[in-house]
Amino acid sequence: SCAEHRVLLATRSGGGPPLTFRLELVADVDRTLEGETRGQRIVAVFRVVQDVLSWSPDGTARARLILAPVSLNVDGEPLGVGPGQEFLVTLAPDGRIVEIEESTGEPAEALAPVGLERLLPRLGPVLPEAPVGIGETWTSDTAFTDETGRFSVALRSHLARLGMRGGEAAALVRTTYVSPVRRREVFANAVAEIDGQDVGTQEAWFAIDGFLLHASGDSVGSYRVTFRPPGGDAVLEPVRGSLDVRLHTELRLVSRPA
Fold it and tell me: What is the pLDDT, as a whole number, of residue 192?
């Protein structure tokens, strides 16, 4: 019967050891300023460590996410990777990042258009609240607000199939999402006001045992951008333009929980 084929997809409670992933991202960025468009291809690899620090009775958890850069190439040229970043986040019981409490470190300048902080909530799947069968859907909508503005992620997911992946019984979750953005971000020598949205899809294999095995995502972001000089220099006029980012991400578990 169908009831036998319902699965509960949930993260392991109690944290367990930190999980280490390899994140690879390829971004094709088109910047248009004053009618002139410049294209750039950015390829970056990170080691991502997710360490659950504490659990609350309501099922939420606080976790540290470390993004340690491994390599960075822009238009085929290797660049210095920079020191990396660390984020303190709150995770909902369904695996969503619901709050980015604080971040330390700066991304490499070349990665500014990618918006790593905005990417975090879209790297892995959001899990259903109850057991699901093949073809069943669930939705979620999460808003993020801080002193730089706001963005949100509304997504719709479904259980596509069950199977073995890397020796683990696993579920394939397919997701589509839209992520409106309106915030201020710091680029080289300028503060950029970004207004637009990302639209994307994701496929994720999630182990029935309670951890992510692999997620791949594709998104297209289109934004209007207003560059203002830093420090509110009133002499220089703001420069208006647009930013289009086509992004592919691959997140793979490299150290599996015992």
Answer: 86
Return all residues near 4 (Cβ < 8 A) that are at least 6 apart: none
Contacts 24+ apart (CB under 8 A), 135-140: 135/159, 140/94, 140/96
CA–CA distance, 135 with 96 (Å, rounded to integer): 21
pLDDT band at residue 227, thresholds of 50, 70 and 90?
confident
CA distance 29 to 39: 6
Tokens 């790297």 identify what position?
123
Task: Report the candidate in 182, 112, 198, 114 with the shortest Cα–Cα distance to residue 148.
Answer: 182
Q: How far is the CA of 53 from the CAs of 14, 50, 65, 68, 257, in angstroms?
A: 10, 9, 10, 19, 16
- For 179-202, write each residue's pLDDT tens digit: 999 998 877 677 889 999 999 999
Q: Give how far Cα 131 sits from Cα of 5, 57, 203, Å.
A: 9, 21, 19
* Count of helices and strands (H, E) across the chain: 1, 12
Over 80: is that where the pLDDT of 30 sits? yes
For the chain, how big is the Rg over CA atoms in Å? 19
Q: Which of 217, 71, 210, 79 is nearest to 157 (CA)?
A: 217
Give me 209's structure tokens.
């045992």
Q: What is the pLDDT of residue 245?
A: 96
The pLDDT confidence band at residue 15, using thresholds 50, 70 and 90, is low
Gap between the Cα atoms of 173 and 145, Å rounded:
27
Cα–Cα nearest to 243, from 194, 203, 208: 194
Q: Give the start-end residues of each E strand in 166-210.
A: 168-187, 190-207
